[in-house]
Design goal:
alpha/beta; five-stranded parallel sheet; 7 strands; 24% strand
Amino acid sequence: MATKKFMFVNRKAPYGTVYAIESLEVVLISAAFDQDVSLAFIDDGVYQITKGQDTTGIGQKNFSKAYKALGDYDINKLYVEKESLEERGLTLDDLMELTWEDEDDDYAEKPSIHLVDRAAMSGIMADQEVVISF
């Protein structure tokens, strides 16, 4: 199978629907098949990677820690739309620290999250071969 550039666009809050968990599962499966995977977090999708998620009050399993495994699957292009964060009163400091190890740089840990504005996000999406929105 030839490698394709896949972008998964996450627009929904992490709980209350199946979109976030389904997206995460498809992302991991795609990476397992050596595809060039990136993720976009837009609108309420930015909540999927916020720190300190506590789901005890809603009775759902907290799957947010699974995002920390993305680097192990060579998924290190997580694009967060700046305006979506700002519209929700959030900053980069409110997001989980998601990293990957760069084997070409003596396995240095590097950040996976890239903050981009709407115009840049549009360009990044246009550069993909496949865009799947959740």
